[in-house]
Amino acid sequence: MKWLLVIAWLAALGTASAKDADVGIRHATPVLHWTSKDEKGVYGYIIYRSASADGPFLRVNKRIVPAVRPKPSVSGEAAKLPADNRYEYEDSSANPAKTYYYSIDAVSRTGLSKQLTRPIRREPRLLPSN
Question: What is the pTM (predicted TM-score) of this model?
Answer without folding.
Answer: 0.68
